[in-house]
Design brief:
The complex is a heterodimer of chains A (117) and B (584). Chain A is mostly beta strands. Chain A has a single domain, classed as OB fold (Dihydrolipoamide Acetyltransferase, E2P) (Beta Barrel), CATH 2.40.50.120. Helix content of chain A is 10%, strand content 32%. Chain A has two helices and four strands; from the N terminus they run H-E-E-E-E-H. In chain A, strands 3-2-1-4 form a four-stranded antiparallel sheet. The longest helix of chain A is centred in the last third of the chain and has 8 residues. Chain A is globular, with a radius of gyration of 15 Å. Chain B has 584 residues and is an alpha+beta fold. Chain B has five domains: 98 residues, no CATH class; 85 residues, Immunoglobulin-like; 87 residues, Immunoglobulins (Immunoglobulin-like, Sandwich), CATH 2.60.40.10; 130 residues, no CATH class; 102 residues, Alpha-Beta Complex (Cathepsin B, Chain A), CATH 3.90.70.10. Chain B is 23% helix and 25% strand. A six-stranded antiparallel sheet of chain B has the order 22-27-23-24-25-26. In chain B, strands 4-3-6-7 form a four-stranded antiparallel sheet, with no helix packed on it. Chain B has a four-stranded antiparallel sheet with strand order 11-10-13-14, with no helix packed on it. Chain B is elongated, with a radius of gyration of 31 Å. The termini of chain B are far apart. The chains are: A mainly beta (117), B alpha+beta (584). At the A-B interface, loops of A face strand 27 of B.
C-alpha cells in the first residue's frame, strides 16, 4: 500500500541498529499473506503485501548499534520485498526485524543521519 | 482523626489533597506536592509569601539540600509540628522521595550518605562572560552542551561539544559554546571532562552568569515530544515520547491548562529533561491543553503559552462546526477508538495559488487522490480555484462533479467542511497536508480540505483510503470522462502521444505502478502507487516522462532535489508503470 514511509522520528527510537548494507542472500520466504479481494483492476494503493523474508545482510557501515559485518534479519510482511543485491540504509529493531514501510527505500541516508543526532 | 493544623494555609492545602484522595484512591503525594506544602511553611521568618518561597524552591539548579535549608530557615515551631503530623498521621500516602524530603526538613531519618567521590573531578569557577574557567585532570578535554537551548533541536543530553582543554596544571579558560548553543545569561550548561585514558568526570551543570545584565530567555519547550494518553478515571498521562531527548530544561516548570475545564497543573521538568514518572493531569480524550513554561525568572506567571497539545481520541474541545469524516480503520486502536484527535486548522486557503508541489499525501492509502489533484493543480490551477470556496465563517464548500445518468452529463455536489483535521499529538495533519507548514495556523488548506471533503462525500476516510483510480478523481473535479490505458512495450508511441496530447491541452494525467513490489526495491519508484504526470520532453529520438510522487519526496537517484519530481525515459517508464489515467 503506497502510503508514505512512517515519520522517521517515530521509528528511530525503536532502531537498535542503523546500518548501510546489501542483501547477500534470501534465506527463506514466508507464506503469501492474504491479499485484498475486492480491488478494482488498475487501482493503486490497494494494499497488496509481500511475504515475510529472512535475509542475510552484508554490512558495510554501522551507524548505530553493535559492530557487525553480517546480520540475519527479518523482513516483515509488507509493501516491499528484497532480492540479493538490494542495498541501502537499514533500520533494524532489537528483535532483528527491518523497520520502515519500504525497508532500505524508506528514507534517504541524510534524513536518517539527521534523525540520529 | 483529622490533623489539627496550626498553619491555616497548610491545613487548607492538605485538606485539598485529602479530598483528591477520596476521588483518586491511588493518589500519592510526590515531590511537586510536597514542595507546595513546604512553600507554605518556609515563609515564616522572612516575611516572604508562599508564592515567593515556591518560586525560590523551584529555581533551576536548586539542589535538594538547598531546598531543605530554605524551608528550614523560614519554618516556625508550630509549622514544624504540622509537617510532623503530616508525616506521622497523614491519610494521603507519600512517595518515598517526598517522605525523605520531609524527614530531612524535620531532621529525621538516617543521615544522607555523602555524595560519591567524583572521579577525575571537574570544577568550574567564575562567570561565563569570557568563556568558562575551571580545573580538570591535566590534558582532559572539556565537553559541554547547552541544555537550555537543546530541547528546541534534536540533541540528546550527552551530545556534547568539545569547548576546551585543561593544560598541564589542569586549568582551562575561555571555554565556550558557539552557534545555536551559544551561552546566554541564565542558560544551563551541562559539562564533563574527558580524560586522555577515555574516562570521564561526573556531569556538572552550571548556570551561565555574567553574560548579560538580565536573563531574558525563557525555558524552551519541545511540544512535539509531549505525549498525552487517556489512562481512564478522568486522568491523562503526560510523557516524553522520546525519552532520550529533552522536553525542556531541567528544573523548568511547565503549566498545563485544560482548555475545557480551565484546570491548571504545574510540573517540574526532571534532571533528564522529561516528566516525573507517573505524572498525570485531569482530562479526557479530545481535551486540549495549553502549555506554558517558566525557568523561574521569565514568564513566572505562566501568562505566555508556547502552544497546545491534545489527548488523542474523542471529540475536539472546540465547537465542531460540521461533523467530520471518520478516521480510517488503520488509525483506530484495538477497542475501535481513534488513536488521533482533531485540530482546528485556520491557515490560508491558498498561499500563492494552487500548485502541484503544495500537495502532500498523508498516512492513508489514497495515493490516487493526491496524484490526481497535483496533476490538476499543475495543468489547470483555475479548476482548483473553482473547486473550493472559503465561506468566511470557518467553513469551506467544495463542489465536486457527479455523473448524472439521466442526462449523461455531470451535476454539482457541494460538500461543506470546516477546518478540523485529524492530527498528530505533536501537531501536523495526519492525512493530506501541504508543503508550506505543519502549523495549524499557517498550513495552506486547499488540498487537505479538498481531500477531507472527498472523504466526507464518499462516507469517511476509510472509504477513500483503500485504493482507487486517479481517473475517478479527474471526473469528480473536472466533470470530464475519465479514461485509462494499459502501458506495455508495444504501445509506447500511443502512450507518449496520449501524454503529449493531454499535457499540451492542459489536461491532467496520472500513472499507476504494478503491485509486484519486488521489481521496485532500489529503483526509487514504489509499487501499488500513483504518480502525477507533470510533463514530457523530447531530446532527439529520446522521449521522457516527467512524474511526481504525491509524497512530495522519494524519487529515483539523479533527479536533483528530493522533491518527488523526476524524469524517466519512456522505455523505463513503460517497465515500471502499468497504466495511464487521463480525461478523454
Amino acid at each position: 500500500m503506497a502510503k508514505p514511509p512512517e515519520p522517521i522520528e517515530d521509528v528511530m527510537p525503536n532502531a537498535a541498529w542503523v546500518v548501510e548494507a546489501e542483501v547477500k542472500e534470501v534465506l527463506s520466504t514466508g507464506p503469501t499473506p492474504p491479499q485484498p479481494t475486492n480491488a478494482q483492476p488498475g487501482a493503486t494503493s490497494v494494499g497488496y503485501k509481500s511475504a515475510s523474508q529472512t535475509v542475510k545482510l552484508s554490512i558495510s557501515k554501522v551507524l548505530k548499534g553493535e559492530q557487525a559485518t553480517e546480520l540475519v534479519v527479518e523482513k516483515p510482511v509488507g509493501s516491499y520485498s528484497l532480492r540479493p543485491g538490494n542495498k541501502g540504509p537499514f533500520l533494524i529493531d532489537k528483535s532483528k526485524t527491518i523497520l520502515g514501510r519500504y525497508g532500505p527505500d524508506s528514507w534517504h541516508l541524510d534524513r536518517i543521519k539527521a534523525a540520529m543526532k | 482523626m483529622p490533623i489539627r493544623f496550626n498553619d491555616a494555609k497548610l491545613g487548607s492545602l492538605y485538606t485539598n489533597f485529602e479530598t483528591q484522595k477520596r476521588s483518586d484512591p491511588n493518589l500519592k503525594l510526590g515531590q511537586d506536592q510536597v514542595l507546595q506544602l513546604v512553600a507554605l511553611v518556609g515563609d515564616g521568618h522572612r516575611g516572604w509569601s508562599g508564592n515567593k518561597v515556591a518560586a525560590e524552591l523551584n529555581k533551576p539548579g536548586m539542589t535538594r539540600d538547598q531546598q531543605v535549608a530554605l524551608v528550614k530557615g523560614g519554618m516556625t515551631a508550630n509549622e514544624k509540628k504540622d509537617l510532623a503530623a503530616i508525616l506521622d498521621q497523614g491519610t494521603v500516602p507519600l512517595e518515598p522521595s517526598a517522605k525523605q524530603f520531609l524527614e530531612a526538613v524535620l531532621d529525621r531519618g538516617a543521615p544522607q550518605p555523602p555524595p560519591p567521590p567524583r572521579t577525575n573531578g571537574l570544577a568550574v569557577s567564575g562567570d561565563q562572560k569570557n568563556g568558562l574557567t575551571g580545573t580538570a585532570k591535566a590534558g582532559a578535554t572539556i565537553e559541554a552542551i547547552n541544555i537550555s537551548t537543546a530541547p528546541g533541536g534534536r540533541l540528546h543530553m550527552d551530545d556534547t561539544t568539545v569547548i576546551g582543554k585543561a593544560d598541564a596544571n589542569g586549568a582551562f579558560t575561555m571555554a565556550r559554546l558557539t552557534g545555536d548553543q551559544a551561552m546566554r545569561e541564565g542558560d544551563l550548561i551541562r559539562m564533563r571532562a574527558r580524560n586522555a585514558d577515555g574516562s570521564t568526570s561526573d556531569w556538572v551543570t552550571i548556570k551561565a552568569t555574567g553574560i548579560a545584565s538580565k536573563d531574558t530567555n525563557n525555558a524552551t519547550v519541545a511540544l512535539f515530544r509531549i505525549g498525552l494518553a487517556d489512562v481512564g478515571n478522568g486522568k491523562v498521562s503526560v510523557n516524553n515520547i522520546n525519552e532520550s531527548r529533552q522536553v525542556s530544561e531541567p528544573g523548568a516548570q511547565l503549566e498545563l491548562t485544560n482548555k475545557r475545564t480551565g484546570e491548571k497543573t504545574k510540573v517540574t521538568v526532571t534532571e533528564t529533561g522529561g516528566f516525573p514518572a507517573g505524572f498525570t493531569v485531569n482530562g479526557k480524550p479530545g481535551d486540549s491543553f495549553a502549555v506554558a513554561a517558566s525557568d523561574g525568572v521569565n514568564n513566572t506567571n505562566f501568562a505566555g503559552s508556547v502552544g497546545n497539545v491534545t489527548v488523542p481520541g474523542g471529540a475536539p474541545s472546540n465547537t465542531d462546526l460540521i461533523p467530520d469524516p471518520a478516521l480510517h480503520r488503520d488509525e483506530l486502536d484495538a477497542a475501535g477508538k481513534p488513536r488521533f484527535s482533531k485540530v482546528n486548522f485556520t491557515g490560508p486557503l491558498f498561499v500563492d495559488g494552487a500548485k502541484a508541489e503544495d500537495v502532500r499525501q498523508g498516512q492513508i492509502g489514497d495515493c490516487y487522490f493526491p496524484a490526481a489533484i497535483a496533476a490538476i493543480a499543475k495543468s489547470n490551477p483555475e479548476a482548483i480555484n473553482k473547486l473550493i470556496k472559503d465561506n468566511g465563517d470557518g467553513t469551506y464548500t467544495v463542489t465536486f462533479k457527479q455523473r448524472d445518468w439521466n442526462t449523461q452529463g455531470f451535476k454539482d455536489v457541494a460538500v461543506k467542511v470546516d477546518g478540523d483535521l485529524w492530527a498528530r499529538s505533536y501537531g501536523g495533519a495526519l492525512y493530506g497536508h501541504s508543503a508550506n507548514s505543519s502549523d495549524p495556523k499557517k498550513m495552506e488548506l486547499w488540498f487537505p480540505l479538498v481531500e477531507k471533503a472527498y472523504a466526507q462525500w464518499k462516507g469517511s476516510y476509510n472509504e477513500i483510503g483503500d485504493g482507487g483510480h486517479s481517473s475517478d478523481v479527474f471526473e469528480a473535479v473536472l466533470g470530464r470522462d475519465g479514461n485509462s490505458m494499459n502501458i506495455y512495450a508495444g504501445n509506447l508511441d500511443r502512450v507518449f502521444d496520449t501524454i503529449k496530447k493531454n499535457i499540451d491541452a492542459r489536461q491532467p494525467l496520472a500513472a499507476g505502478t504494478y503491485h509486484d513490489e519486488a521489481r521496485y526495491t532500489n529503483t526509487g519508484v514504489y509499487g501499488d502507487h500513483a504518480y502525477s504526470i507533470l510533463g514530457y520532453e523530447q531530446q532527439g529520438t529520446e522521449r521522457f516522462v516527467i512524474l511526481r510522487n504525491p509524497w512530495g519526496e522519494s524519487e529515483p537517484a539523479g533527479n536533483g532535489a528530493n522533491d518527488g519530481v523526476f524524469k524517466l525515459k519512456l522505455e523505463a517508464f513503460a517497465k515500471l508503470y502499468q497504466n495511464l489515467m487521463y480525461t478523454s
